[in-house]
Amino acid sequence: MRRDERGIALIVVLLVMAIVGIVGAEFAYSMRLEASAVRAYKAGIVANHLAEAAVAQAMREIAAESTLVGEDAQGLLTFYTAARLPLPHLPREKVDFPGGQFTYRITDEEGRINVNSSPPDRIDRLLQVLGLDRSVRDIIGDSLQDWRDTNDEHRLNGAESDYYLGLPVPYRSHNANLESAAELLQIRGVTREIYDGVAETPGLVDLVTVRSTGQVNINTAPPAVLKALGLAEAQVVEILQARRALPYAVVPGTFSGRGLGFSTQIFRVEAQGIVDGRVAARVTAVVQKRPGTPVSVSVLEWSGLR
């Protein structure tokens, strides 16, 4: 073989080796990606089951023989007997479970404002407490009423299907009561910041509901909700101080006629499934405690996010 032919052969060999190396590297990279995807999928499945286990444990707490609910010094929802004795909490933070851990929070759904049954002035006061301008409050208030009514005629500052159908992702007005608090995000004027809250300002997600009886639990309502009911600052402070010691067993006469109650049967459970120290699944359930022998707890609403 001549020298130039040997040179060409060497170049060909080097090219083939380079191609094989590139293909091998690409194959190894693809395998790593596939393995990572499989691990992520498995972690998601495990985390979802962990979050479901958290909801199940929360329902065990809710099913306990209790008469009242309130909040302890750390703000955790606490169940009380008829004698107003607190029942011990089950573990709620980073509870070890096969496959990982779970965390959950229980809140009182009847400590919130029901947007389906509350009069417009109550909704307006709530939005005012959140620091929203009058123009924004008018848009949200009118649009909420338009969303719930059965006609297609919008109020002065409201919106009906003709407005929503003109959005980049079009949809129609519900023209019925809201089925979930998250439905507020579809209503004109309600931004993600208003719904989720920012900094020290709470969001509607923690202040409103569509599942309560309409009465607000005096033992668990946040200050913003109490103010939305028309209570003065001094009255709100009085309630917060009194219930910090013991939950109310009756609504005092000075607060009658404000839409307040003192008990609840409906709760919200927000659960997280944790795998390898990372939150990989979230579940929110609204559940109702039904008296009987034995006491049962049924799910009214369920939503999940991985």
Write structural notes for this entry.
The structure is a single chain. The protein is an alpha+beta fold and 306 residues long. The protein has a domain of 114 residues. It contains 7 helices and 13 strands. Strand 12 and strand 13 form a beta hairpin. Helix 2 runs antiparallel to helix 3.
Look at the structure and give the mean pLDDT: 92
Share of residues in strands = 15-25%
The best one-word shape is: extended
The ordered string of helix (H) and strand (E) elements is HEEEEEHHHHEEEEHHEEEE
Task: Give a short synopsis of this structure.
The chain has 306 residues and is α+β, with helices and mostly antiparallel strands.
What keywords describe this structure?
two-stranded antiparallel sheet, five-stranded antiparallel beta sheet, 13 strands, 37% helix, single chain, 306 residues, alpha+beta
Give the topology, please.
Elements: H1 3-62, E1 68-71, E2 77-80, E3 95-97, E4 100-108, E5 113-114, H2 120-129, H3 134-148, H4 161-164, H5 192-196, E6 197-198, E7 201-202, E8 208-209, E9 216-217, H6 223-228, H7 233-245, E10 260-261, E11 266-275, E12 278-290, E13 296-305
Parallel strand pairs: 5-8, 9-10
Antiparallel strand pairs: 1-2, 3-4, 4-11, 6-7, 11-12, 12-13
